[in-house]
């Protein structure tokens, strides 16, 4: 089983995250940002990851630090995945009513993000929509992964949820074990 736990404590946040890459989609998430909990739950369920997150932080300032640090912590956990004998690449196109999200990822060790997400409103509850792209940037940097995404639609809830579901499905594909693969790189290392 590929189970990774990360604890990260700063002056702004205190986060404990455990992810089982080979899970069944069980989750228990508490960030004190209900919509963020919801989309992280969708990520876990559709990626078949067992995900446990407990986060607290300076919400009296705003939601930025918790969203960013959960992204960093998730990335640090994902960076522990053995890069040998995995598929490395993953992609998904997920519709949700009028919205559609496309995500492609590469676990090749080079952090980069290309994202096309344009929010129609500033927030959903106490979750700032401007933090969507920042979350994925934080995951990519700490996880040493390449993430490309595009989101279309009208309803902000649907757009963001479709994006997190697509990320889960794409990551599940990329992390699948395939003994034939070895290290998928002409360099021989990732």
Describe this structure in words.
- By secondary structure, the chain is α+β, with helices and mostly antiparallel strands.
- It has four helices and ten strands; from the N terminus they run E-E-E-H-E-H-E-E-E-E-E-H-E-H.
- The protein has a four-stranded mixed sheet with strand order 1-2-4-3, with helices on one face.
- Helix 1 packs parallel to helix 4 (156-174) and helix 2 (64-78) runs parallel beside helix 3.
- The longest helix is centred in the last third of the chain and has 19 residues, at 156-174.
- The mean pLDDT is 96.
Summarize the structure.
This protein has helices at residues 34-47, 64-78, 131-143, 156-174, and strands at residues 3-9, 13-20, 27-30, 50-57, 89-96, 99-106, 112-116, 123-124, 127-128, 146-152. By secondary structure, it is α+β, with helices and mostly antiparallel strands.
Q: What is the element layout, followed by pairings?
A:
Elements lengths: L2 E7 L3 E8 L6 E4 L3 H14 L2 E8 L6 H15 L10 E8 L2 E8 L5 E5 L6 E2 L2 E2 L2 H13 L2 E7 L3 H19 L16
Parallel strand pairs: 3-4, 7-10
Antiparallel strand pairs: 1-2, 2-4, 5-6, 6-10, 8-9
Helix pairs in contact: 1-4, 2-3
